[in-house]
Structures are given as C-alpha cells and as structure tokens.
C-alpha cells in the first residue's frame, strides 16, 4: 500500500542531476528512511544523468513510500532505447567505463528493479526495502532457577542523583548517602565532575558532559566517596525536563557488581526454564554478549571487551581487527586503558617496529616488564600480565582479543582457553558486523564521491576549487585540512587554504603551519604520515607552559597559553599528506589531520585518496583556465587603445563589452588617434570569429590604420592597403567589417568627417530635431576581394549633432525570434536628443541589455561622438 508520494521534474541540463539528488535525499530523510538514503541518492544520480545528460531529455522522478520500503521511478522521453532481454546472460560492460552504469548499480544495490516502456516514455524503477527492526518489547528475559539469578547483598541500595543542565547536583537521596558517605547538603550545588572518576576509553568518544546530555545512557564509572576511595558504580542516566521546561538528568547508581539491577538488556542467557531443566546448555554467544546483541559494530566490540574483562576479572581489555591483507591490526575497542591508546592506531602483525607478537595463537604473558613491546597497545599503561587470543573465521585471522591486569602472573592457560572459547563464539558475528559496516561505508563513499565530483566539476575558479576541496573533507574525513599548492617545478609548496571544523581554531592552525616547512612533494600515491605539525605544536605548548610558570622568557602580548594548548590539541593526532598529482606532475598536497589521540581509518584514507585524485584534476583545470583567461584578457587589452585623446570641440565616449567568460579574445575593436594637427582618425571594426586568428587580424588592422593614416593616405587608400595586407595572411586571413573616418573640428563649432563604411553597420547621425539618418553608404567588406574600389563620404556635424557607430553585436541582439536590428537602434537613438555623448552611449547599451534576458553571445562596441557647439558668452 502506498502511504506517501513525492514527485518532481528536472530540465535536460547538467545541474538537474544535483537537484534531483537533493530532492530524493530530502524526501527520504523527511520520511525517516535515513538507512537507505545513500543507496537511493547514488541510483537516482545515475538514472537522472542517463536521462538529462546522455539522452538529453527531461527527467521525472517519483518517490513512493510503502510499509516495507521505497520505490523510486525515473522516467525520460527517449523510449526507443532498448535493454537486453534478461532470459540470457547479459554483458553490461565494464563497471569502470564512464557511462552505462545505471542498470548495473540497480542490479547491485536495489532489492528489485525494472524498466517499463510506453510510446512516449521510458521508466526505470528500483525498490529499496527497509531493514528489519524488532517490534515489541525492547528486551525481555525468561524465568530462571534461583541459582542462576545474579548475586546481590541483603539490601540493594540505588542512589538517585539529579543533575541540572549545568552539570550541578540538585538532588541526593538517602541511598546515595549510604553508598558514598556524603550528606545531601555536602554535595548539593557541586558539579558531578568533582565526584565522578570518568573512564577514558578509546573508541567511545563520550565524556561525562556528553553523557549527561544524552537522552539515555548506561555504563560504568567511579564515584569518590567521603573517605577518598573511588567506588565503582554502574549507572543508568535518563534525561528529563521539569514543569518549567528546564532539562536535567536523573542518574540511578548501584555498586558495579550489582549492575544486573539496572542493566538493559539482561546479562543472563536467553533460554527458558524447560531448556535449562533438560540439561541443554544455552547459546554461548548470548551468554557472553547478552541478549539482544548490539546491531552495530562499535556497540558489539565495546560489549565484547567489557564482557571479556568481567569474565577474567581483569583491569582492562581491548580488541583489534585485522586489515584485509592481515598484515596489520587496528585498535577498535578497549576499556580500562588511558586515552593515549588511540582508536584506529595500527600495528604490524608479523614484523617491523612495534609488531604485535603472537597474534595468530593464544598467548599468556606473565609479566610484560620482562618482554617489553610484546603488546604495543599496553606500553606505558601499568599493565603487567595479559592474555591474548585470535579471532578467526574459516582459518583466517580477523582480529585479536586481550584482557590485561595490573598485577603480574594473573593468568594461566586455563584463562586463555576460556577466552579463546568466547572468542570463537563471537568471531563470526564480529566479522559479519565488520563486513556490514564496510558495505555501508562503501555505499556512503560512493555517494560522497558522486557529489564531490559534481561540485568540483561545477567551477573553474581556482580559489573556489581550493575552498571546495577543504570543505568536502571537513568534518566527513578529518577534523582539519590544509591545502598546499605548487606553481611550477621550481617553486616551493605554498600554504593556500586552511580549514578546521571549529572556526575559532583556524587562525592558530594557520599560524602554526606557516612556521614549519611544508611537506615534501612526493608523487608516490597514497597517504603518508607527517609528524611535523604535532611536534611543532607540542614544542610551542611546552614553551608557553614554561613561560607561564616563570621558567622562560615572558610570552608576547598577542599569545596565550590557552591558544597554544588548543592548537596543540588540534594537531595532536595523526596527520597525513596526500599528493595532488595531475598530468604526471605534483601540483600540491592535501593535508588531513585529527585531534589528539585519534588515527585515521584505512577506509577513510582510501576515500581521501580517491578524492585527492579528483581534486587534483579539478585544481589543475582551474589553473589552466585561469592562465588562459589571464592571457586572453591581456591580449584583448593590447588590441584596444590604452586611452582616448581629448578633442577640443568634440565629445567622445566608447563602451566595449566582451561576450563569453573572458577566455576567448573577441574580434571587435575600436580606435581614436591623432593624425596631424587638427585632424583625428577613428575606426570601429569586427573581425570574423574569435580566438588567436581573429586577434592577429585585429592587431594588424588597428596598427596598419594608424601607420597608413599618419603617412598621409586618405580613407579609401588606407582601407585598400589594409585589404591587401589581410589577404597576404593566406589561410590565416579573416574578413573584416570596418568603419573608418577622419575628423576635423571647425572653428564655428561644427565638425567635418570623411568616412568609409566597408561592410560595417552604417553610422547613424542624430540631429537636434530628433531625426536619425545614416551617415554613410555601404561598401564591400575587407579580406574577401583583391581589387576594391572604395570611396569616402563627407559628413558635417552641426552643433548638437551626434554620430553613433556600433558593431553588429548591438544590432543583432536577439530574444527568441526577435532582433533589435537597425530599426530598433534608430528608435532608441531618437530618444537621445540633447544628451551628452556619454549619456547617449549609456542609453544605447542599457537598451541593448534589456532587449534580451540571456547574456550577450557576441562582443559589442559603441562609439558616440557629439559636437556640443561653441560655448555661449
């Protein structure tokens, strides 16, 4: 049954793909289907791309919600395309090729999919089912015989402590007084942090402040009693609000060995009474983990180390997972170890410094002091004895589980066998959860790379590309990011962009990175560790701390211990560098960092490497585009006069607008120059086409006009010789429309002009009475015929008259089938009576821009000259 629907249509343009992805993502998140969003976005992106990019038609996307999942339909208007029949084996091609992956992805990711045809539409649909979730009670346990129930003292005391939104104790019951020795008035108003001994467990990432803000939380920590001793407790936190709406946290605490009173789910085996009475043993996995088992990998691993520690009465426990090639082990969960045990830290299995000894077999170390480095994770933790066992699936090493104690000779082979038995029971579940996590990461990575590629391809601006590179990595891949760029092979890497997820730390991070040498631009692919930022930050923090204690020079006024320590914490974790390689050259480095005590996951590094390849190509394209644009703009400026001369008795105004994005040299040009005393030459022309060939003709024309005019040649002779010069260019020649004239201001306030119009839009003369008329006759354009017979025409501009000269980009301005044309230009010019030359040019340009909503497709040049007349006495 369809319970909801959402539909949208998308035009056949490239930006529609990103809009369609956002539409599907927002729709599914609004329906609460976050579990399948990534798959749906990837499939929609491919199918809409096929429609709007490859097929070139509009796409219609329909989302249908049902009780068991979501169906998404993508329809286009290209029904004649076929798909092979599924009755026989089908080769859909390589998944690595650029196109045709939409149906392959549907087959790989969707639960069901298909293609429907109509005479006007082709519709591809796919169905994504929702993951099964248990319905009913959250947790339940069977009735058990008395001897299987957990042990408790004669009277179980449950401390009830209430904490306000600031973390301050506001309520303290009698059981809390009995358990910890404080009266209520002694602790009321004090922060809970004054009493709590919070465990720093790598991998959980939750401190006491974060735990108090969660809606629910369960776990173990310690409370310092009135006698100064730490009492281990098991706590259940519930976030509530009072009648005034103020939030607070209610904490229920029991002694740690009585955790069964509060713990959910139950720790006991999930069997019923009859099963036990018949002598059948309960499922070992449920006995060890509890029921129900966590459905996420991190929860399962954390539950595993806690149960292993409790089972062997240890002080700490840890679990490491093997990489795919089984050459390294990666820290994934621990309990009872200091925060220096970094999550996702990796150690080699067989050889190398800091190798993990005895990873493939159970091992018992009576005293780690006698074999330092045997278990690198425990170095410097105070643990003396340890038992480790491998996790194996079908004979393949998948991880290692260990339990440690602070006293030596705690464990024997009997404990190793017990722990190995438990490890064998959970190995398959851990591997299954790990593979599920990898699959989710893979799908999320695919969605991430699709959107990243789309964003990077959407700009050719270098600075914007740098910003996108950093913003895409933070916080998805890392806590902070720095991008170094290399201008050429002889240049040193330059720190171009720095970003941190906390904006207040960007300045300190940038200052630190600016003081240390940049990483070496090594082209070797993959991420490599860079220790310089962490070392420099720690040294700076140490110097600042010593100065604050009076052990060194006083700190400068602009720095403080808080800033330095915050920066050290920012870069205190693992820092990696990935080369940005484009066209077999290192053009920069992408630097990613983690805060103190954090490492990168291997999957994240692989995703960052994929991103760096795409970002490097986008950055190099932006660089090439910027260089080309700068060259084109410089060449365009060189083809136009640097400044116009002042002519007594004549107002002159020029407006020039280049079309496009600035990376092509236009063919339009203008010029105004003195020929001799009292005489000036002017020209406005348009070379066919754009680019270097057009620029060559433009440069030839502008400089030839000046040279020939100053040699004393008249207008027809100047243009005939220019025509010959253009034809001499041979295959590189381009035809040229040109209006050339000579101007003589007169003593009576008028001006005499001699003009030749060679294939160019005719100049228009505006008289004081508002009439407009052409000021010349059309003649053949240049660069086509060898023998030209041109003639010049004389025009006298009376005081108040205006001569308007334009290129065809003005008259051929279009809006659909409409064109401004000569008539439209004449109509606009009739409204310009009494205006200055500058005002006339501005009004013409404004009218041209308003004629059509689209950006101009051709260059435009406007030259307006007005004779104001003699000033009145």
Name a few traits of the molecule.
alpha+beta; elongated; 6-stranded antiparallel sheet; 873 residues; PAS_4; 26% strand; 20 helices; single chain
List the helices and strands and how they pair.
Layout: E1 2-10, H1 15-30, H2 37-55, E2 59-66, E3 69-76, H3 102-109, E4 112-117, E5 122-129, E6 159-164, E7 169-172, H4 174-180, H5 184-187, E8 196-197, H6 208-213, E9 216-224, E10 230-241, E11 247-255, H7 273-277, H8 284-289, H9 297-311, E12 316-322, E13 328-335, E14 346-348, E15 363-365, E16 385-393, E17 396-405, H10 413-457, H11 462-473, E18 480-485, E19 494-500, H12 506-515, E20 528-529, H13 532-548, H14 561-570, E21 575-582, E22 585-593, H15 602-638, E23 651-657, E24 668-676, E25 679-687, H16 692-710, H17 715-727, E26 736-745, E27 751-758, E28 764-766, E29 772-774, E30 778-779, E31 793-797, E32 802-806, H18 808-811, E33 814-815, E34 818-819, H19 821-829, H20 837-851, E35 860-866
Parallel strand pairs: 27-30
Antiparallel strand pairs: 1-2, 2-3, 3-5, 4-5, 6-7, 6-11, 8-9, 9-10, 10-11, 12-13, 12-17, 13-14, 15-16, 16-17, 18-19, 18-22, 20-21, 21-22, 23-35, 24-25, 25-26, 26-27, 27-31, 28-29, 28-32, 32-35, 33-34
Helix pairs in contact: 1-2, 2-3, 2-10, 9-10, 10-15, 11-15, 13-14, 16-17
